[in-house]
Amino acid sequence: MCLSTLFTVAELYVILYDAIVKGDNKALGHGREGYYFGESGEYLMYDVAKTIASALVKLGRGESEEPTTFTKEELDKYLGGVSCFCFLNLTF
């Protein structure tokens, strides 16, 4: 699975911190507009999805703790048809 370097994770924190300090909520995005996952080691997206699904069930916002794949319609609607969540060394 994709790995983020320590530099990439640090860059993510700097970008978030700067936006928070400036009070730039529109650029920051949070809640429905932004979720941030920073990892400097190896992980499986299945494990990430399972943890999110479990949290949603506990909050009463999900029905199953078992993650499911996106349908073609969901990919088009929410992700512009993109199905890869790997953005290694992405610079904002």
**How many domain units?**
2
Main sheet record:
none
Return residue spans where pLDDT drops below 50 for at least 5 consecutive residues.
87-92
- Write down the overall geometry: globular
Number of E strands: 0
Beta content: under 5%
**Fraction of helical residues:** 40-55%
Mean pLDDT: 76
- Cα separation of the termini: 22 Å
Structural class: mainly alpha
Number of helices: 4
Please trace the helix and strand order, writing H or E for each element: HHHH
* Radius of gyration (Å): 15 Å
How would you describe the overall organization of this protein?
There is one protein chain. With 92 residues, the chain is mostly helical. The protein folds into 2 domains: 1-42, no CATH class; 44-84, no CATH class. The chain is 47% helix and 0% strand. It is built from 4 helices and no strands. The protein has helices spanning 6-22, 25-28, 45-58, 72-79. The longest helix has 17 residues, at 6-22. The protein is globular, with a radius of gyration of 15 Å. It starts with 5 loop residues before the first helix and ends in a 13-residue tail after the last helix.
Architecture blueprint of SSEs:
Elements: H1 6-22, H2 25-28, H3 45-58, H4 72-79
Features:
disordered C terminus, 92 residues
Structure summary:
This protein is mostly helical. It is built from 4 helices and no strands.
